[in-house]
Structure formats: C-alpha cells, structure tokens
C-alpha cells in the first residue's frame, strides 16, 4: 500500500496533462470534474497512506534522476508523520478549492486551462511535501513558483496581473538563490542530499553552533523567506492578489506559502544545531508578524487585508520554528490553511456577488444578501482572531505559549505575538464589519443583482467553516484538559531535534492560564476597538487619519518598501545594464575591434600608397634610400 | 560498418550537396524535400552511433587512412563520450533547421540548401576528427557556408555582420593554425616523427615552457567561438542578421565548437597551462554569466536578447569546465546539449513570428498570448527550459555545473547562481512584453497561429527538453568516462606540481587529505 505514495502527486499531473493538452475539446463540465476528481483521488490516497503509515517513516524510490560523479539523486518519496499531515492538508484543502472554482470560474473562457494550472500546482506542492531529498523538494519548490506565476498572471491581459506574476516568480527566485546554495553546501558537506542520510549524520558532524551549519540554515531560510513571504522578500504576496480569488486561497493562504515553514520544520535537526539561525528565524518571524499586521489595518481592498494577514500569520509560524516549537508551527499551518482558505473563498463569494468589487468602502450590509457566506466568514474571523475554542485559538495559543516558555523564547517574543494577536482581531473585525454590517454602500442597481453564490461555492465554505471550528481540537492543550494529540503524532519527526535542544523549565499551570487569559483579553480589546470604530460608525478613524497624516500615508503605502526596492535594486540594475550595453559593449569592445580593423586598413593603405605607379615617386624613393644606405655605411665604416 | 559510419556521416551531406547542384534551381519544392530527406537520412544513420556506442570504451568507430606520409597527416576519425552527443545534436538540429527553412527561404533556394549540407559535413567532421590537421580543415570548412548563409540570406545589415563574424573567427583560427604547426614541430623534435595524430599528441607531454603560449593560441580560437567575454561582440550581430536556421545552427552547434575545442584539445594537450590560466578563465566565465544576463535584459530586439543570453549560458558551460571535477565537467557537457536544444528552439520560435510580422522588436508586440495561444505555450516551455526550471534540461546542466564549481570555485559559483536569478528576470520580462497585456498594435491581431509543419518541427525539441530534464542518466553515463580521462590528465599534472612544491612532508599516501569530503574531485 505505502509503495503507491508516488501516485499521490501523479493523479493531479494526469489531470494537468489531459486538461492542458485536450482541454479545448472537453466540455466545461468535463474539465471541472476531471480537475476535482484527480485531486480528490490524491486526498483519498493521502488519507489511506496516513492510516497505513503506523510508526515509522516509509521511503519509496521510483526512479533515478541525476547521476554524475558522486552525485546521485532520485525521484524518491518519503512518508512520515509530517509529510502525511502535509499531504492530507494540501490535497484536502486543494480539493475544496477546486470544487469552489467550478462555480467561481464558470464564466471564464479559459476554464480548462485554469484547471490545468490548478492541477499542476497541486502536483508540484505534493512533490514538495513528499520528496525524500532536497533536490526533488527544490523541484516542487520551483514548480509551485511557476504555477503561481501562471495563476497570478492568469488574466494576463491586465498589466497589473502580468506584473504581479512576474514579480512573484522573480522574488521567489531570489530566495531560491539561497536555497540552491544551501543544497550545494549540504551536498559537499554530507555527500548526500537525501533527508534521512543528512539528518542522521548532522548531529555527529557538527557541534551545536558550528559556523557551517549556521550558514546552511541561513541559506535555506533565505529560500523560505521568499516562498513564505517573510521580511525582506514578502513584497510579492500582496500583489499576488491579482490572480483569481480561489487561486489566492490555494496558493497564497493554504499551501504554497506554507512550503517555507514545512522546509524549516523538515530541517529541524539542522536548525536545532544552530542557535544563531533559530534566533534569526524567530526574530524575522516575529517582526514580520507585527509589521504585516500593521499594514493590514489600513488596507481597503478586501483581498489585500487578507494578504497581509497571511504574511502576518506565516510570521507566527516562523516564530514557532525559531523557538523550536516545530509541531506548533505545523499545527498552526494546518488550522491556518482551513480558516484562511475559508476567508479567501468567502471574500471570493463577496466579490463574485458584487461583480468584481473588491473595495471595502463599496460594500456593507452584505449579511442579508449572502447569509451562508456571512456565517462561514464569521466563523473564520473568530477563528483567526483566536476566539477560545476555535481552531485558530488552539494553535496560536500554543505558539504564544512556546514563545514565552521555550528556553529559546522570551518575554519579548511573547509581547510581539500578543500585540499581533490584538491587531489581528482588530483588522479582521474591521473587515468583517465593513463588509457585512452597516448600510450598503453600493449602488441601488447593484443591490438588485447581489445574490448568494451557488452550491458549488457555498458547499466548500461550509466544510471549511466546520474545520475552522473543530480543526484545532486534535491539538487541544493539556492545560485545558486535552491530550495535545497533534504534538504527539508529530513527535517522532522532531525527536532528533528535541534531543539537541536545551530542555526548558516546567512552568506552573497558573502562568499558562494567566498568559492565555491575557492574550484572549488583548484580542478582545482589538475586537471592541473595531466594533466601536467600524460598526458604531465612529469618526475616530477619520480624525486619527487627519491628525497623523504622515503616519497614515506611510502605513497606507506599505512603508514605501516597494518603492525603496525599485529605487535601490531594480533601477540601478536596469540602468547599469543599459550603460554596460551602450557604453561597454558597443563603445569599448566593439570600438576597439572596429578600431583595430580600421588601423589594419590604414596600415594597408599606407603600405599601398607608395605603389602608385608614378615613376617619379619610385625614383625619389630609390634616391632617398640610396642616400640613407650610403650615410649608414659611412657612419659604420668611420 | 563501425569503421565506415563516421566517414559516411561526414561525406553523405557533401555527396548530396554535389547531387543537388545538378537539380534545376527553380524546382523549389523538390529541392526542399530533397534536402529534408537527405538530412533526415543522415540523422537516422547517426542514431546508429547511439545504439552501437560502448560506454567507457574510448574512441570508437575509428577509421584511419594516411593522407600524406611525409607530412604525417592522415584522415583519422573517431568519437568518444564527449563527441557522441555533439554529433547527434548536429544531425538533429540540421534536420530541424532545414525543415524550419521551408517557408522562410524563397530566393536562391538551391544555393541555400547546398550551403546547409556543406555546413553539416563540416560540423560533423569537426566533431569526429582526431587528427589535428584534419580538424583544422573541417574547422575552416564550416566557416565558408556560414559566411554565405549570413551574407546572402541574412538581414539588412548582413554584410557588416558577416565580415565581423569571419574576421573574428579567422583571427582566432590563424593563431590556432600556428600553434598546431608549432606543436607538431615540438612533437617531431622529441619523437622524430611528423604526426598530427591526437592520440600521439595526448600521450606526449609538451614541455611546460612552451605550453602556455600554445594553450593561449588554441584558447583564443575557442574563446572567440564560445564566445567567452570579452570576445562576444560578433555574436549579437551575427545572430540578428542571420536567417532563422542560421541562428539555430550558429547557437546550437557552432558555439559548441569552442567549448568542445577546450575539452578535446586545449585542456588535455596543455594541462599545465590550463591550470595556470584557470583563475582568469573562471573570472571571464563569471563575468560572461552576469554581463550576458544584464545586457540581455535591456535588449530591444528579441534575437539579440537571445544572443546575449547565449553569452550568459556559455559562461556556465565554461565555469563547469573550470570546476575541474566530474560533476562540473558532466554538467558542462550536458549544458552544451541543453543550450543547443533550448536556444535553437528559441531562435526557431523567434523566426516563426518574424515570418509573420517582419519585426523582431519587443516593443512591436504585446498581448500575443491571446492571439496565438499555441505559439505562446511552445514559447513558454522553451523559455522555462532556458531559465533552468527543474524538470527541464536546463536545470540539470546548470545545477551540476554550479554544484561542481561550488566545490572548487566557491565564489564563482555564488555569482553564477545569482546569474540564474537574472535569467528569470530578462526572460520573463521579455515574455511579458511580447505575450501579456492587451493587443495594442492591430497588426498583431491578424497573426496566425503555428502551422502543422511548425508544430511538428517544435515538438521534437520540446520532447528532448523534458527527456533530458527528467531522465538525463543515459546521457550523463555515456559522457562521464571520456570526461574522466581528460580530468585525470589534468590531475596528474596537478599532483606532480604539488609534490614539487611540498617535497618532504606530504609525499606518498599521506598526501591524501584527511577529510570526510568526497575524494574524487580536484581542488586546484
């Protein structure tokens, strides 16, 4: 049974090929069903694989890939508890998004192409999580980058979409630069790129804190900051909202951006050997979480709020990784996949209903028009805000607790985490109130046309709503009387890393309760704040904006980071290249080549000059020559 | 069969070219079909090499006839793992090029295909020759048809481009000719025999004092062909002016003559000089990678963009050689094939759109993806192969090169890896401006999608892109033993040198460094 794990990614690949090659001959119905069923098959297989997995990891090699000198790498798959969780989450959420897409994209003229890309994306993502070596992971890694390029730029006739797709690919490649170098370093150090070999050898090869292992980890982490949209490479993700909304849900909430978190967790042993690298991961994660949350508070595009929210939540996951709470990171990755997919799909439902209106200022009062969307969106908002009992609460609380209690953590991390939690509640309820409550701010004409989405779209919303509610219960913390079975499930994967890390002191339950209460309290504060400003129609936001216009503009314009990058990186490169071309290539090199040619020609002409056929000239030359020879002879002889 | 196959492959195009001169020149269709069938037969015959090739058995299909005993010149051919795939690449791309020329070449059709067949003979001969004199004959033979292909069927500025191309190449070749004669003389002085036989030469250690100048003379000829920065400025002009098929062959095969020359002649004949020149070659390769990519980014003409991207890609190939280990070497040789396929395909695609719109300026396009979706998909796959996406051939080559270089030339490898980021930059930016956005020029609305013939020409290239990308093993394993021989030759020299430098401490088994790192690679 477990030897069929390679089929998990293959099904969507088949879907991609059929839809990609023969899509135009299929009906819409055919394309859609094919797309959904292949992913569903992967989901079922992943579930079965999880059930049959039992204790240990299982490896299966399909075929050799590259063999050169000592370097060998194959299409090898590894199923352990971590990849099983990832495969199930990815294929499950992706399946729901596929189903939703059949409704959302129903009118699009390139329907089959859309499903082809979507399937290809799932294929690469499953390769990424199931690979048993760095290079195959890298293939999935670059592959999802390609698919994001294709899907973000799906409506390529819009310049903004085409730009966003290109930006995503290139920024990701900057991260991949680090990742690739990291893989090379690993190979030359370990003589292998297979996970089991590398991770088994690492603790014997390095003492904790070795510079080389820190270098490896930081290079890998550079890759992660690209894919998982962390400082300094997060800039592609907000623009990526140009893609169709289900794509945002798939790529930019539930799966692709989680690749970086997965990779860091997969390499937990290496990171555990480098306290420096872990500290960097934690700081970048915490900083990104807070920084992105502040930007989310002032966005008016419904999808952009969610985009910054994603960056912020990914920051939480890296914070968890940085304090060596790897299972907490994966847990939040999973619950986040549920509620963020739901938020995006809900936003898509709103956008669909309002005929491609994305501006929150033109929404309002949608609660009566879109009851199913409203309810499910509400659940997701509560979940992400950390309402006690819901999925987001359980996983986020575990991260906050770890950031405080872990020997690698500290109060500062906890404070940043809790502040972010407050901001999260604030911006999410701001969005929720602006979209669903209050008076409708769209035209009368639109109002008559607003309608709830079809079953194909609301169905996935309901399922994700349920998951956002109960999905966290599998990791219910001990302090609240649970068994935290999720952490136990993943324990074997992270056991090796645990052994290398310092053990923390046991904190009293009362501390844990206190901190939990505090974080819930701060989230509640965020909620109340949003309630008073945006539901009660306060003028406070306007006043604040007018009072501190510079600050508002700074945040509204995303701290001008994009402009900064453009000015400092893009423009000098393009300008410098023009200079190289026009000045160096055409003037210096070609100039000297042409100059040399001209010189040779001149020389030839100069040489040809005396041979002009005039006897006078020859006679004169002869005479001069004779005189010279004579003069020389006289000089020598005397 | 085995001893005649290479001779057949060399002379078949010449014979068919000779027969073609007898055909009436206004029978265009017949001439086209004839040329296609002739090159197709050549390709099928060359496939025999693949099946009969014995991995690791040194030179095979060897044939030898003495040409002039007094001069020591002989007709001597044979191939090993280095030349095998380059020969196959040549015969493959020639079929593609001939077929791709069906619609584009409307004038002087007969002369065009005669030139192409002669060119093929020259290329196959160059890769097969194992006598230096014969090699030089074929090397120069290639120049002539290429001169005519650009000079007669080229673009507006073709005369300037041809002359530049020929002058650059001849300058290099003359130096090489002098070096060949000089080396023959050195060999004669020491052995008393006049010979140009590569086998004899490679057994012979040329005195270190003379190696450097000889190496530089060979290297100049090859560096111009590669082209290695700063000898590259003939390339964009030649490419932009050449007809489509000329560009395909130019990029696909002719540039490989330079890198092949390094692997076959310059490095194994003058290993000591190569080690001396290594740091400079590394620097030039890396500059080529970055410089080529940067200048490609700001090109306005698609063809010159692809031409500069070749400078960048060939920089990778050279870097792989400079890595001086098996991984880098195999990556370098594989990347030569990859570049031939991907860049050949790119030029083919540019030619297809040029035949419809008669412009190659990026600014004249926009929004084509909507108008010609099939063309767009072909272009995109080729582009992805060119930027080295995993799963395509470009990734395997580039990764092996960088992996190999990382070991011995770490800083260069870091810069090289940065070149991959830039590659994504210039390719995607060009693709966006040509294919995405709205159709702004109504002329572009009328462009028709690829014909059945054009698709049929492209499909084999696309298939090869994925075959090498997903299953490069059959290629790599045939290349490796031959490359190992070149490496071990350099390695011998290096070890002798190191022992000379540290005479007492590290002689003998103790010279093996105590390390957990792999032992087969070389660190100069």
Give a verbal description of the structure.
- The complex is a heterodimer of chains A (638) and B (524).
- Chain A is built from 26 helices and 2 strands.
- By secondary structure, chain A is mainly α.
- Chain A is globular and about 120 Å long.
- Chain B contains 20 helices and 2 strands.
- Chain B has a two-stranded antiparallel ribbon with strand order 1-2.
- In chain B, a hairpin with a 4-residue loop joins strand 1 (60-68) and strand 2.
- Mean pLDDT of chain B is 90; it is low at 504-519.
Quick structural overview:
The complex is a heterodimer of chains A (638) and B (524). Chain A has 638 residues and is mostly helical. Chain A has helices at residues 7-22, 28-53, 81-104, 111-130, 134-152, 159-190, 195-205, 211-227, 236-239, 245-254, 259-266, 268-272, 275-296, 302-322, 326-353, 371-385, 391-405, 411-436, 444-449, 455-470, 485-500, 509-535, 540-547, 549-556, 561-608, 615-637, and strands at 58-68, 71-79.
Number of helical stretches of at least 4 residues of chain A: 26
Q: How are helices and strands ordered from N to C of chain B?
A: HHEEHHHHHHHHHHHHHHHHHH
Structural class of chain B: mainly alpha
| Multimeric organization | heterodimer
Total helical segments of chain B: 20
Mind describing the biggest β-sheet of chain A? 2 strands, antiparallel
What is the CA-based Rg of chain B, rounded? 23 Å
Quote the beta fraction of chain A.
under 5%
Q: Percent of residues of chain A in helical segments? A: over 70%
Topology (SSEs and partners):
The complex is a heterodimer of chains A (638) and B (524).
Chain A: H1 7-22, H2 28-53, E1 58-68, E2 71-79, H3 81-104, H4 111-130, H5 134-152, H6 159-190, H7 195-205, H8 211-227, H9 236-239, H10 245-254, H11 259-266, H12 268-272, H13 275-296, H14 302-322, H15 326-353, H16 371-385, H17 391-405, H18 411-436, H19 444-449, H20 455-470, H21 485-500, H22 509-535, H23 540-547, H24 549-556, H25 561-608, H26 615-637
Antiparallel strand pairs in A: 1-2
Helix pairs in contact in A: 1-2, 1-4, 2-3, 2-4, 3-4, 3-10, 3-15, 3-20, 4-5, 5-6, 6-8, 8-11, 8-13, 10-15, 13-14, 13-18, 14-15, 14-17, 14-18, 15-16, 15-17, 15-20, 15-21, 16-18, 16-20, 17-18, 18-22
Chain B: H1 5-20, H2 28-52, E1 60-68, E2 73-79, H3 81-104, H4 109-128, H5 132-153, H6 158-191, H7 198-203, H8 208-225, H9 234-241, H10 244-269, H11 271-297, H12 302-322, H13 326-357, H14 368-371, H15 373-386, H16 393-408, H17 410-435, H18 442-445, H19 452-470, H20 473-501
Antiparallel strand pairs in B: 1-2
């Amino acid at each position: 049974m477990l030897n069929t794990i390679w089929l998990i990614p293959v099904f969507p690949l088949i879907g991609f090929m059929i839809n990609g090659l023969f899509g135009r001959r299929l009906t819409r119905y055919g394309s859609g069903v094919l797309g959904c069923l292949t992913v569903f098959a992967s989901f079922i297989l992943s579930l079965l694989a999880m059930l049959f997995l039992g204790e240990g990891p299982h490896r299966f090699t399909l075929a050799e890939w590259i063999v050169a000198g000592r370097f060998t790498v194959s299409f090898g798959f590894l199923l352990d508890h971590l990849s099983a969780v990832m495969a199930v989450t990815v294929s499950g959420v992706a399946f729901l998004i596929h189903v939703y897409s059949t409704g959302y994209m129903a009118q699009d003229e390139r329907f089959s192409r859309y499903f082809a890309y979507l399937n290809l994306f799932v294929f690469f993502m499953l390769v990424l999580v199931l690979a048993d070596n760095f290079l195959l992971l890298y293939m999935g890694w670059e592959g999802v980058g390609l698919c994001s390029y294709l899907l973000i730029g799906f409506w390529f006739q819009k310049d903004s979409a085409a730009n966003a797709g290109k930006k995503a690919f290139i920024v990701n490649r900057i991260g991949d630069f680090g990742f690739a170098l990291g893989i090379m370093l690993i190979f030359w150090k370990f003589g292998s790129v297979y996970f089991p070999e590398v991770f088994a050898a690492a603790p014997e090869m390095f003492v904790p804190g070795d510079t080389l292992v820190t270098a490896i980890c930081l290079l890998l982490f550079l890759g992660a900051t690209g894919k998982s949209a962390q400082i300094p490479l997060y800039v592609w993700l907000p623009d990526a909202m140009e893609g169709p909304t289900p794509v945002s849900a798939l790529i930019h909430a539930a799966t692709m951006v989680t690749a970086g978190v997965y990779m860091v967790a997969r390499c937990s042993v290496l990171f555990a050997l480098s306290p420096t690298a872990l500290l960097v991961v934690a700081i970048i994660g915490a900083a990104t979480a807070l920084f992105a949350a502040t930007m989310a508070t002032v966005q008016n595009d419904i999808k952009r709020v969610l985009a910054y929210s994603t960056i912020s939540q990914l920051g939480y996951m890296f914070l968890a990784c940085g304090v060596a709470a790897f299972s907490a990171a994966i847990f939040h990755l999973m619950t986040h996949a549920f509620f963020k997919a739901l938020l995006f799909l809900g936003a898509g439902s709103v956008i669909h209903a309002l005929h491609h209106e994305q501006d929150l200022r033109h929404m309002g009062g949608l609660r009566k028009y879109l009851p199913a969307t409203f309810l499910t969106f509400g659940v997701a908002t509560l979940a992400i805000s950390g309402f006690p009992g819901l999925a987001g609460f359980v996983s986020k609380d575990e991260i906050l607790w770890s950031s405080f209690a872990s020997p690698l953590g500290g109060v500062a991390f906890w404070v940043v985490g809790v502040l972010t939690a407050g901001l999260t509640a604030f911006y999410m309820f701001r969005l929720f109130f602006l979209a669903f409550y209050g008076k409708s701010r769209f035209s009368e004409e639109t109002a008559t046309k607003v309608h709830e989405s079809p079953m194909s779209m609301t169905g996935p919303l309901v399922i994700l709503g349920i998951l956002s509610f109960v999905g966290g219960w599998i990791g219910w913390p001990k302090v609240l009387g649970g068994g935290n079975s999720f952490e136990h499930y993943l324990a074997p994967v992270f056991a090796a890393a645990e052994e290398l890390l310092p053990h923390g002191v046991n904190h009293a339950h009362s501390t844990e309760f206190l901190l939990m209460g505090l974080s819930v309290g701060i989230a509640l504060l965020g909620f109340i704040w949003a309630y008073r400003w945006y539901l009660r129609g306060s003028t406070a936001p306007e006043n604040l904006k007018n009072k501190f216009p510079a600050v508002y503009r700074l945040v509204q314009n995303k701290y001008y980071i994009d402009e900064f990058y453009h000015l400092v990186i893009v423009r000098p490169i393009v300008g410098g290249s023009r200079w190289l071309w026009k000045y160096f290539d055409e003037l210096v090199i070609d100039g000297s080549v042409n100059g040399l040619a001209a010189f040779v020609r001149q020389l030839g002409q100069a040489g040809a000059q005396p041979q002009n056929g005039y006897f006078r000239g020859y006679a004169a030359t002869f005479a001069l020559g004779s005189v010279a020879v004579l003069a020389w002879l006289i000089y020598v002889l005397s | 069969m085995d001893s005649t196959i290479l001779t057949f492959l060399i002379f078949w195009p010449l014979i068919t070219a000779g027969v073609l001169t007898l055909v009436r020149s206004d029978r265009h269709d017949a001439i086209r079909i004839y040329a296609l069938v002739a090159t197709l037969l050549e390709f099928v015959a060359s496939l025999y090499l693949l099946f009969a090739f014995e991995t690791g058995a040194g030179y095979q299909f060897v044939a030898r006839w003495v040409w002039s005993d007094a001069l020591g010149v002989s007709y001597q051919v044979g191939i090993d793992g280095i030349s095998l795939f380059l020969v196959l690449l040549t015969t493959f791309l020639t079929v593609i090029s001939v077929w791709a020329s069906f619609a584009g070449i409307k004038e002087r059709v007969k002369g065009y295909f005669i030139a192409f067949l002669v060119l093929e003979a020259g290329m196959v001969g160059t890769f097969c020759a194992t006598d230096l004199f014969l090699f030089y004959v074929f090397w120069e033979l290639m120049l002539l048809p290429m001169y005519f292909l650009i000079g007669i069927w080229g673009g507006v500025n073709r005369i300037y481009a041809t002359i530049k191309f020929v002058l650059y190449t001849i300058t290099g070749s003359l130096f090489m000719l002098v070096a060949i004669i000089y080396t023959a003389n050195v060999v004669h002085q020491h052995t008393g025999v006049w010979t140009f036989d590569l086998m004899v030469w490679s057994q012979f250690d040329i005195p270190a004092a003379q190696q450097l100048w000889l190496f530089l003379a060979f290297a100049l000829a090859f560096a111009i062909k590669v082209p290695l920065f700063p000898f590259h400025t003939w390339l964009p002009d030649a490419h932009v002016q050449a007809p489509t098929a000329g560009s395909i062959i130019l990029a696909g095969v002719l540039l490989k003559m330079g890198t092949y020359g390094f692997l076959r002649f310059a490095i194994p004949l003058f290993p000591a000089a190569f080690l001396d020149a290594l740091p400079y070659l590394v620097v030039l390769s890396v500059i080529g990678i970055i410089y080529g990519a940067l200048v490609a980014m700001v090109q306005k003409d698609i063809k010159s963009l692809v031409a500069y991207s070749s400078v960048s890609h060939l920089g990778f190939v050279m870097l792989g050689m400079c890595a001086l280990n098996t991984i880098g070497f195999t990556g370098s040789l594989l990347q030569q094939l990859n570049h031939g396929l991907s860049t050949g395909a790119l030029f083919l695609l540019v030619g297809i759109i040029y035949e419809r719109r008669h412009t190659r300026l990026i600014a004249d396009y926009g929004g084509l993806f909507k108008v010609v979706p099939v063309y767009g998909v072909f272009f995109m796959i080729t582009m992805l192969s060119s930027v080295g996406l995993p799963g395509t051939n470009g990734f395997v080559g580039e990764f092996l090169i960088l992996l190999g270089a990382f070991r011995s030339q770490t800083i260069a490898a870091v810069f090289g890896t940065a070149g991959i980021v830039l590659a994504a930059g210039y390719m995607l930016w060009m693709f966006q401006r040509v294919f995405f956005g709205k159709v702004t020029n109504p002329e572009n609305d009328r462009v028709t999608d690829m014909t059945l013939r054009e698709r049929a020409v492209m499909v084999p290239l696309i298939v090869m892109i994925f075959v090498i990308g997903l299953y490069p093993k059959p290629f790599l394993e045939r290349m490796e033993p031959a490359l190992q021989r070149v490496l071990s030759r350099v390695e011998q020299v290096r070890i002798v040198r190191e022992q000379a430098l540290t005479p007492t401490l590290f002689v003998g088994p103790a010279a093996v460094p105590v390390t957990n790192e792999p032992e087969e690679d070389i660190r100069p």
